[in-house]
Write a structure and sequence with these properties.
Elements: H1 4-17, E1 40-45, E2 50-54, E3 60-61, H2 66-78, H3 99-103, H4 114-125, H5 130-145, E4 151-152, H6 154-163, H7 165-176, H8 184-195, E5 197-199, H9 201-207, H10 209-212, H11 227-240, H12 246-252, E6 257-259, E7 264-269, E8 273-278, H13 289-302
Antiparallel strand pairs: 1-2, 1-8, 3-5, 4-5, 6-7, 7-8
Helix pairs in contact: 1-13, 2-4, 4-7, 4-8, 5-8, 5-9, 6-8, 7-8
Bound molecules: glutamine (GLN).
InterPro entries: Beta-lactam/transpept-like, Glutaminase
Enzyme class: hydrolase
Subunit structure: Homotetramer.
């Protein structure tokens, strides 16, 4: 078995040097200012040992990676009733696409495309004030990462709020079908702010550990969800976590993973490890270009693909 510490260090060195860095997201002006040369990786094994490389300690905007955690919270609130509001199928469309919503009566294909995540956020909001719902999401992240210093980057949230015309269109369209229950501005506000949570690779990999270990953080002993639920969230990450790049990610990496336009990816190796990578440049589907390549190298060298070593 190759030495994980060496593999992680080699990947970080290799990724720092590569010229092909992808394109940083431009549609959120604040995100366009992030340095494309950044690269971070954190891997936490079953015993809780942390292996890091590059900028593993630098907070970045987790964006859509937050949707894994809002999904977890919403399932905790309403259980399987959530699936009346959102589907479980890959969309085959970009993350911010609107077309399927008309054909499918305002029910988004899955909880990870923007429309689906808006429905999930609306479930968490359920009649509360946006501030309370957001506080609940942030405290959940702090609890999972065991770090109360995690916060929201209000510059990014504000930038998205000012430029979030697509998301506003999606939310209003769903509201017209009755699949948003709260005032559209409330749901959008909470959504933009949870996407703007800033975390480092170390914090994100820590927060994901319950998904690698049957719903429970093996170090703290805290149970977050049941084994069944952890398995199902992983299944959704595998099939839908990279939008219309999900097939490619499964083909190349072979792990449940969730990407964000901030360049982060959370990937889960069942029973073995929780991994976070961060490289701000994106590919055409809006997923981290070097993040995916780093995970591909890591899983190949460690024999970690869920489809066989
Ligand atoms: N893919 C993403 O990370 C998208 C999240 C971003 N906040 C948006 O709504 O556009």
């Amino acid at each position: 078995m190759p030495d994980l510490k060496t593999v992680v260090a080699e990947i970080a060195a290799e990724m720092k040097e590569r010229p092909d860095r992808g394109e940083v997201a431009k549609y959120i002006p604040e995100l366009a200012r992030v340095d494309p040369n950044a690269f971070g990786i954190a891997v936490i094994d079953a015993e809780g040992k942390v292996f890091t490389g590059g900028d593993a300690d630098t907070p970045f905007s987790i964006q859509s990676v937050s949707k894994v955690f809002t999904l977890t919270l919403a399932l905790g609130k309403v259980g399987d009733r959530l699936w009346r509001r959102v589907g479980k199928e890959p969309s085959g469309s970009p993350f911010n696409s609107i077309v399927q919503l008309e054909r499918e009566q305002g029910v988004p294909r899955n909880p990870f495309i923007n429309a689906g995540a808006l429905a999930v956020t609306d479930v968490i909001l359920s009649g509360h004030q946006p501030r309370e719902a957001l506080g609940e999401i942030l405290r959940f992240m702090q609890f999972l990462a065991d770090d109360v210093s995690i916060s929201i980057d209000h510059g990014i949230a504000g930038s998205e709020q000012r430029w979030g015309f697509r998301n506003a269109a999606l939310a209003n369209y769903m509201r017209s079908f009755g699949n948003l229950e709260n005032p559209v501005d409330f749901t959008l506000g909470v959504y933009f702010h949870h996407c703007a949570i800033a975390m480092s690779c170390i914090q994100l990999a820590t927060a994901g550990r319950f998904l690698a270990h049957g719903g429970r953080n093996p170090t703290t002993g805290h149970s977050v969800v049941s084994l069944d639920r952890a398995r199902r969230i992983n299944a959704l990450m595998l099939t839908c976590g990279h939008y219309d790049g999900s097939g490619e990610f499964a083909y190349r990496v072979g792990l449940p993973g969730k990407s964000g336009v901030g360049g982060g990816i959370l990937a889960i190796v069942p029973d073995k490890a929780s991994i976070a990578v961060w490289a701000p440049g994106l590919d055409a589907a809006g997923n981290s270009h070097l993040g995916r390549i780093a995970l591909e190298i890591l899983t190949r060298r460690m024999g970690w693909s869920i489809f066989g070593a």
